[in-house]
Give the backbone structure.
Amino acid sequence: MRQAVLYSPKQVQDLIAADKVVLIDVRDRKDFDAGHLPGAVNMPDIFTYLAETTPEGLKTLQNTFTDLFSGYGLDGEKTALVYEDALHTRYGGSCRGYWILRYLGYPKVGILDGSLSAWKQAGGVLTTETTTPVRTTFPINIQSRLMATYEDVFQALGDPNIKLLDNRDQVEWMAQSSSPYGIDFAPRKGRIPGAVWIEWYDFMHITEDHASFRSKEEVHTLARSRGLMPEDDIIIYCFKGARAANTYVALSEAGFQKLRIYMGSWNEWSRNPELPIEGGIPKAAAPFIRN
């Protein structure tokens, strides 16, 4: 039986009442302090961490988050549920937390569907009280099949059986900006050659302060417009693996099976002058009209 990924506010309330959940808030500390779900812990590192996919970089990532999650009491028994303001507000931060936990092999992990926005709409209460969790031992069990390294991506450039999906914002795809942190934050602007582009927002229905993932049928139609099919071997990248994680959730919920995230993404790729980039007019773009 496939484990649930998206948990409704009611399901989260039930887990809180049964003391069977660790709620992980990925927002900035000031936002967390202003009001959060009862019992939640604050881990902005999930959003801010910049990964490298060298062997040393992967080991650092594993050690860093194993230590953080141990400190927040994740022992494999309680469900870890991640949330942010809304699914579209922090570049996929909650989905990045979910994906990191899955990569580390945590057995029970999910996302508050709609995040804090949905919680408040459902009448959920917020608190400013802080929780001091009991440190435990995190049960690490690396799931390498979920991770693509820069070497994997480089090898994929000449492999027609592997498809690259860039889901950065349009200005990044068009080589007008290097990152969400600033036009010249990274040393090079452009794209990984051969990638197709779907802006991460397009996988969601978005209103002013709320977002939800599109239906399975809508996701299939969108992916098909770029030549992506559910059986394809797909590597997703963005700038640091957060928006890619949001897209990972959308695609996996729609039945796509062979998905990896290039966690180093453009931040790592652009800093290695030996890795090729594409500039100018995109060669793998295709139009998509939002509903």
